[in-house]
Design goal:
Number of helices of chain A: 9
CATH topology of chain A: Tetracycline Repressor, domain 2
Radius of gyration of chain A: 18 Å
Shape of chain A: elongated
Largest sheet of chain A: none
Distance between the termini of chain A: 42 Å
Number of domains of chain A: 1
Oligomer: homotetramer
Largest interface: A-B, 34 and 33 residues
CATH class of chain A: Mainly Alpha
Helix content of chain A: 55-70%
CATH architecture of chain A: Orthogonal Bundle
Structural class of chain A: mainly alpha
Chain lengths: ~210, ~210, ~210, ~210
DNA sequence: TATGAATGAGTCTTCATTCAT
DNA sequence: TATGAATGAAGACTCATTCAT
């Protein structure tokens, strides 16, 4: 019964502005449940009936809130993408050194992958091709913003000699490395999320 | 009309031993085509009819070669996994220094992702959950061998002070970083596959 | 915002007597809009939501005015059928010669098909089978009256040697010929409605 | 179990040429049954399950022969339209006087409406709007041919002073008059089909 | 071994209707 | 009277799989 995205003060504000669905509304509950199911079973293997059952309504009722299954997938992805962009912008604004900015990127990414928004983030990454092309384009617009923030930081780091790999490649490599942690990193294991962040940082910068 | 895996002398031998399907047989052609379609459209969105049509037979005929769609997916994954394991073992045997062994790992992985076996490798990585659990376990057996090779090399590297991150984490992080290259690295772009390998190496090793 | 039937002094009286809905009431507006939509898109392809939306209310609210979609269709048909019957009786009363009476029939029919009540008339003709059998019977009662007026006139004409075809067949043939004009005759084209009436008359009467 | 269109020597040839479905094939049986059901209950109120049941297969099997319900409707309409065009061309070729040509038109039309192809013809006329616009255009191409034959004959008749009403209007009026006979004329009643044809002729020509 | 029609359970989606507020 | 979320039965369509030929 949680939102597909983590509800912090930032998200609170986004919800109030109507950019993200309130988890207390049917729409919000539907999106959160969809995120979980899509992650657990995959988009195609999740049926509208299952989704409805988990939310406690009948399958036909879903269509009061979304016009198609595709729109639900879009909802899950779009909201998490908006939230990530927002969260990263805020985190970067608070960081001063370039090293801290890189850490901010890593922490934000890992927070979304392994925090309350983990389901939506995993869906964003691994069910991308299930989304209709038309809606992929819409999500991509926001997504590009997000990665521009990465590349700016890595460009600065490269200029400072802090990193060896070119900004665009480093972005992609680190993004892949962190995306894959969904499959092996578990919160509460012997490696903490902060420690994981440090390992990723160790890949990015030379000491 | 190619095999799902690249046919070198090693594979030739595997084929002759019956461990991998000959691309000249219906079974081999079916697997190669399935790999491509599963990659392009996703497992669920590929129908048996399409697969049959591309191979030039009728849908009913597929079932003379495979007992189910799941078995085809298994075939694609199992063969590529066997081939990777084989290829890596050979490459490591030829490398002398630990640094070279790391490069061997990276080159082998990238060769499978971006070479002729790219389709099968992408399917292995991104359609994993579409495979029935029972068969996932079978593939996993071989897969574990493969990553044991990685970890042994990274353990040695760590002991030599060549790498900073613990072997098990480094394996996973690099694996993720390289898996993701499917989405952004294109053969014949301004970055060559060898140059890409060097960038990955630069993440792993602090010179 | 018009009634499904044309509001002349006759209809005014019918409205005042409660036999036809006032277009100023929600019921009247609903019927007029339904007539238009049923004609444009067909009964089955018109949804209650669309109908409600066009009238400016919500779908649930319709059911305060009509107990079912079928009742709406009935309303549309019943009112137009009453109005036609009424209009024809009046027109015939004013005609003196048999020829004029035939013209009165033709003009009345064409007026309903191509005038403000055109939507309702088209629905009456072309969505007949969408109406429940029970309500078909109700409409049929009035409808029979209407055609009895036709047959009486054509019987007289036949007796006078004015027409060649037997009354009952001539009624049906002319009715069909005029009903079909919905599909090809457009008000304001090179043929006026009066000229069209003369063409129909020319079929019926051998000068 | 009859074809949607009457199987005479002409149709036999069309079938052999593959332009019309053989009623002995599944496709042909499906079309004939669909024509009957669409006529009896209307296109929208006929379900694929019903259609399948009447043909003796399961609903899913229909989609081996047609890709959608719309394509079935198209099939029914297209084949009857082709057959009408063919039949009329032949009949006109055999008629010598203009009067006989008009009779040929009337007989052909009535034959299609009340003969074995009556179901398909009724569907063509009364379910027109249920057909997708794209496919309407395809049917229209053939349909226009058919009515061009009418207009040519009526133009000749008009020139000869045989008819009073202009060719284009006479075509439409007679077409409407005959289309409507579906609803009131029954084979084997007190009026024979030939006698009905004479009544229609009486409308068209002045003695 | 290949065919291809048929299966039948399952999918997303639609929509008239209900009803608590 | 109006709302609008929810209902639930029904619709068209999909597709891996079967099997007689």
């Amino acid at each position: 019964m949680t939102s597909p995205v983590q509800v912090g003060p930032l998200l609170r504000q986004m919800i109030d502005e109507g950019r993200v669905s309130d988890p207390a509304t049917p729409r919000g509950r539907l999106l959160a449940t969809a995120a979980r199911l899509f992650r657990e079973k995959g988009y195609n293997r999740t049926t509208m009936r299952e989704l409805a059952a988990e939310v406690g309504i009948l399958s036909g009722s879903i269509f009061h809130h979304f016009e198609s299954k595709d729109e639900i997938l879009f909802g899950v992805m779009h909201e998490v993408v908006l939230a990530m962009d927002d969260a990263l912008a805020t985190a970067l604004a608070e960081a001063t050194t370039t090293r801290d900015k890189i850490l901010a990127i890593i922490h934000t990414e890992l927070a979304f992958i392994h925090g309350k928004t983990g389901d939506a983030t995993a869906v964003l990454i691994y069910e991308w091709r299930a989304l209709s092309e038309k809606r992929q384009r819409q999500v991509l617009k926001v997504r590009k913003n997000y990665f521009k923030l990465w590349e700016e930081v890595f460009a600065q780091a490269h200029a400072e000699g802090l990193t060896l790999v070119e900004p665009e490649y480093l972005s992609q490599l680190l993004h892949g490395a962190m995306a894959w942690t969904t499959y092996w990193f578990k919160q509460g294991g012997k490696l903490s999320q902060d420690e994981l962040a440090n390992r990723v940082l160790a890949l990015a910068i030379k000491e």
